[in-house]
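Field log, afternoon session.

UNIT: design team B
ACTIVITY: writing a sequence onto a fixed backbone
BACKBONE:
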């Protein structure tokens, strides 16, 4: 039986018509869609990532239409699955994102505040369409979950919260370290110790990637199905492509594509 392939995911943060760099959930403006297209050329970058995650981190609900426009524009250039979210509260919110080119919808705050809405979303679109995003950081030495763009602490430990979420109809878990976010110091593997026994959905680990070795360290853990990075500067240009090829060279179980472009990259490593 062929084992399930691991995945490499790139995450984009959107705020006020700009894409952002985040460090411990403090945002720094980087560039607009033109800057992104110039520096990442997603027609090429898409050859080296398995999925693109786009998150609207604006607090202003009026940004939804602009976010959907940018999602559609990225979808036109990126031939990999797209998961999009940020402020999704209802079936209508999710449907609008899916119509804008998203393949999956990322949900966060309603996991805590309105689990019935999660049931409704799953009933409408299927649980495989829902990515549960959980942000976590240490508070007085205890790993705790946060919602509302990291601004509100949930009254539970991370382990308790993940156990609750595991009972909801979700397709994947996007587990993000606020402590490591944007630091480039590597993933916080201790978050994985909070996963409930018998969790049946794939786990995406995010927060802290700064170099290919960090991807490898996390993907080597059997509890991790995918890694994500939102670090725009560390992985600018062809760095994502080079990172994937290095992982393949090291024997990591990633999908391989018959691409002359990737073969050229392999020759310079």
């Amino acid at each position: 039986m062929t084992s399930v392939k691991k995945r490499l995911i790139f995450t984009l943060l959107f705020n006020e018509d700009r894409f952002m760099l985040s460090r411990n959930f403090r945002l720094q403006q980087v560039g607009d869609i033109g800057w992104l297209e110039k520096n990442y050329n997603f027609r090429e970058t898409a050859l080296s990532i398995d999925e693109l995650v786009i998150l609207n981190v604006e607090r202003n609900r009026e940004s939804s239409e602009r976010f959907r426009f940018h999602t559609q524009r990225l979808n036109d250039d990126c031939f990999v699955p797209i998961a999009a979210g940020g402020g999704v509260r209802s079936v209508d919110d999710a449907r609008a994102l899916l119509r804008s080119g998203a393949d999956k919808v990322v949900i966060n705050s309603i996991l805590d505040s309105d689990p019935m809405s999660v049931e409704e979303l799953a009933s409408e679109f299927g649980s495989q369409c829902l990515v549960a995003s959980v942000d976590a950081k240490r508070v007085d030495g205890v790993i705790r979950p946060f919602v509302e763009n990291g601004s509100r602490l949930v009254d539970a430990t991370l382990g308790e919260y993940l156990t609750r979420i595991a009972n909801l109809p979700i397709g994947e878990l996007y587990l993000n370290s606020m402590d490591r976010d944007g630091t480039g110091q590597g993933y916080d593997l201790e978050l994985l110790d909070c996963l409930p026994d018998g969790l049946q959905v794939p786990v995406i680990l995010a927060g802290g990637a700064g170099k290919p070795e960090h991807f490898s360290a996390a993907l080597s853990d059997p509890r991790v199905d995918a890694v994500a990075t939102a670090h725009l500067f560390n992985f600018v240009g062809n760095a994502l492509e080079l990172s994937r090829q290095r992982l393949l060279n090291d024997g990591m179980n990633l999908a391989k594509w018959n691409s002359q472009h990737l073969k050229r990259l392999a020759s310079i490593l």
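LOG NOTE: The first strand starts at residue 7 and ends at 15.
NEXT ACTIVITY: expression trials, pending approval
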